[in-house]
Design goal:
- Helix content is 49%, strand content 12%.
- It is of the alpha+beta class and 617 residues long.
- Among the domains are: 111 residues; 125 residues, no CATH class.
- The radius of gyration is 41 Å and the shape is elongated.
- The two termini are 16 Å apart.
């Protein structure tokens, strides 16, 4: 009899439990459309570090989700935002160069320049084709400028994004600090904390989209730290501070001209935290601003530097038609350096000649050309001052001058309406340095391109342009070369001997080959490794690198989103209200309750029967 009574007590307890579970499931089901509702459960509690509840309110006993899942979800949200911002800006970078199809890309413009140069080699005497070739050079340089300007523009866009994101961090950390205060007060008066905790979770989630954070709960406070452990919110606030340096150009870099992002430290001072802010929108902005864009700037600067050097190297070997009356150097001879010997090759010879406007040799003071040995017998190279004296002495007039009197830029000025040209002499060692820099190239007397990089070598691509002389007069485009015959025979008169022919394209042929196919060894710079390729090949490789980076960013962002979606699903299984689950729970508990009630009836009938038997005894 006592066994039956105990069994009856157990069934009554089970019935009450089943009914309670059914009621909780029904409550969850009815409130499933309310976004502010937090699921109620009677499952056993699982403790987590910091006691983070993750939005679940108990219907009796509290259940919280696995803390590792919460952290993983938060960190993946940070990664998704980081990858999304990188993807966005790399796609913009990929769009900067245009495409071969729309003929707006750097490669297309370089191909067009090569084609115009090739056409000019066939008809070197055509002024129209010469102008077309120089116009094509200008168009190509415009695309290079557009690309570098786009990099600068995007870096400034990133900078503005960074400024607003830092401000948002400070707003959110202040909100979290205030919510901590409210939660502590509500807990002290035994009020419902669910709404405040939901708000606090929202603030933390928004913070995790900005930077990678660590979250720790102490009592009723939610403390937030950077990934490196610097406090943002504890028992007091530690705000970030950043004063933008202004316009971000090709020369701007961190550390250096770009100001640091600081955080208030425990001593009341400021600590540079720039490199410690990783992940999220801020981390992505910093990576793009300080790493990705500068690396591509270095790569295109390397291209522009090599392009300028190689084009000028060839251009200084030739002369325009009609030849120029004045050649002004762009290499400044410092005061004192005019008397320092230059490392010319032993017995290397440079030819400086006077010509008329038809390209014939012309006399001045009985002389029409000078074959100057720059290092006679290899006993020592001539100094700039000695070169100047030798030229003027030979021609009997002040043809050569320095811009600053005894130093400065070297200029050669043809006398009496004549013109001049510089070249080499067949059978003699070319007049150049041991580093194979020619006489004209050394003093930069006949450059086609110029640029103005900063002291650190940044900005070649931003400033590369045609020299002012070439931009103003297409005739200075050096397509031919000075007569290099070792013994010029003057038949009848000097004017009958050709110094340079209008149809001579010997210099242009080399220049055309350089642009189109000549292999150049490019040093490693930015994203580009050491490589030997043509100028077209280098540009193509760099553009492909951008496209690969953008494609990889798209793939990475998609992967990060897939991982986050998986974590979200796991999260919702333990913390959200699923209508199908709750409906099934209601039915299951009702069936269990009904089964228990049937069992109870049978027990009652058995007990009554036994009582009747005992009562009749």
């Amino acid at each position: 009899m006592s066994g039956l009574l105990n069994l009856f007590g157990l069934t009554q307890g089970a019935a009450q439990t089943a009914m309670g579970s059914a009621r909780l499931a029904a409550e969850n089901l009815m409130a499933s459309q309310d976004p502010t509702y937090v699921k109620r459960t009677s499952s056993p509690q699982i403790d987590v570090v910091g006691g983070r509840i993750a939005g679940i309110v108990s219907g009796g006993i509290v259940r919280v989700i696995d803390e590792k899942l919460v952290v993983a979800k938060r960190e993946q949200q940070t990664a998704v935002t980081f990858d999304g911002v990188k993807k966005e800006f790399l796609e913009l970078l990929d769009d900067l160069n245009g495409s071969l199809e729309n003929k707006g890309s750097m490669e297309e413009k370089l191909l067009a320049l090569s084609q115009k140069a090739s056409a000019l080699t066939v008809e070197a005497g055509s002024p129209i084709l010469r102008r077309n070739a120089l116009e094509s050079m200008k168009e190509f340089l415009k695309t290079v400028h557009a690309f570098t300007s786009g990099i600068n523009s995007q870096r400034n866009s990133v900078e503005h994004n960074l400024i607003s994101s830092i401000a948002e961090v400070n707003v959110l950390t202040e909100q979290l600090f205030n919510l901590n205060t409210e939660v502590a007060a509500a807990a002290g008066s035994h009020q419902d904390l669910s709404n405040l905790e939901t708000q606090r979770e929202g603030v933390i989630e928004r913070l995790s989209k900005l930077i990678n954070i660590q979250v720790v709960q102490a009592d009723n406070n939610m403390f937030v730290y950077t990934a490196s452990g610097k406090p943002l919110v504890e028992y007091k606030l530690y705000p970030l501070s950043y004063t933008s340096s202004g316009i971000i150009d090709y020369s701007a870099e961190y550390p250096g001209s770009i100001n640091p992002i600081n955080i208030l430290n425990e001593n009341g001072g400021l600590s540079d935290i720039t490199t410690e802010l990783v992940g999220g929108r801020i981390g992505a902005c910093l990576e793009m601003r300080d790493k990705v864009y500068p690396q591509y700037q270095k790569s295109i600067d390397q291209f522009a530097k090599m392009f300028q050097q190689q084009v000028n190297h060839i251009h200084n070997k030739g002369t325009g038609f009609p030849p120029s009356a004045k050649l002004t150097g762009r290499m400044f001879v410092e005061d004192g350096d005019q008397d320092v010997a230059i490392a010319w090759k032993d017995d290397s010879v440079v030819r400086i000649a006077l010509l008329d406007d038809k390209g014939k040799f012309a006399e001045s003071g009985g002389e029409f050309h000078l074959d100057l040995n720059l290092n006679p017998g290899g006993i020592g190279g001539l100094t700039p001052a000695q070169i100047l004296d030798a030229i003027n002495t030979h021609f009997g007039s002040e043809i050569a001058t320095f811009s600053e009197g005894d130093h400065g830029y070297l200029s050669l000025n043809a006398p009496g309406g004549l013109r001049l040209a510089i070249g080499s002499v067949d059978g003699s060692i070319s007049g150049e340095t041991v580093g194979e820099v020619g006489f004209s190239e050394y003093f930069r007397l006949n450059d086609l391109l110029e640029s103005a990089p900063d002291a650190a070598g940044r900005g070649y691509a931003n400033s590369l342009k045609l020299c002012s002389e070439a931009a103003a007069d297409a005739s200075v485009f050096a397509i031919g070369r000075l007569n290099s015959s070792p013994a010029i025979s003057l038949v009848g008169s000097v004017a009958e001997t050709t110094a340079i022919a209008s149809g001579d394209s010997s210099n242009l042929s080399e220049l055309s080959q350089l642009i189109n196919s000549s292999p150049i060894t490019f040093p490693a710079a930015g994203v580009m490794p050491l490589q030997t390729t043509s100028f077209l090949g280098y540009l193509t490789n760099m553009v492909n690198m951008i496209h690969l980076d953008a494609s990889a960013a798209i793939e990475q962002h998609g992967f990060s989103e897939d991982v986050l979606n998986g974590l979200e699903q796991r999260y919702s299984m333990v913390s959200g209200v699923n209508q199908d689950e709750e409906t099934a729970e209601v039915m299951q508990q009702k069936m269990l309750y009904q089964g228990i009630l049937n069992t109870s009836r049978h027990l009652i009938e058995m007990i009554n029967s036994m009582l009747d038997v005992f009562g009749g005894v």
